Amino acid sequence: MANYACNIEWSRGDAAFTDGKYSRAHRWRFDGGTVVPASSSPHSVRLPYSDAAAVDPEEALVAAVSSCHMLWFLSLAAGAGFVVDRYTDDAEGRMGRFADGHRGITEVLLRPQVVLRGARVPDDAAIAHLHHEAHAHCDLAHSIRGEVKVEGGWRHLP
Question: InterPro entries recorded for this chain (predicted)?
């Protein structure tokens, strides 16, 4: 099995912290060198303690599911001989409550718009089948309620 890793870094700076008036802005660093500015959602923590221009975890989850679906769709379409010129998705995640009482992203709505070209022209059923298969292959779409383990450490500075 593959392992996926990233580094998340936050620093308090000179904020008091215990009053809750500290920045939630932080950075995500990925193995290829990409650094993404991140923050809590302004829906969760009011401005200016959140950074509205940064990616929040909820948006990232929706983007990851949408991206996974798209990548599988493109692969399956190519395998079926269809030429995809463009794929866009205005995906949306909805926060709610699960039956067990926990809040979370209860639904991810994908709205892909696909532009194809070439001699091989699919019908609606073929496109629906590609989306169905892409969803079936996307491990992230099946992982949202997966187990999260915490294995960390800590230290105290005098």
Answer: KH_dom-like_a/b (IPR015946), OsmC/Ohr_fam (IPR003718), OsmC/Ohrsf (IPR036102), OsmC_Ohr_Peroxiredoxin (IPR052707)
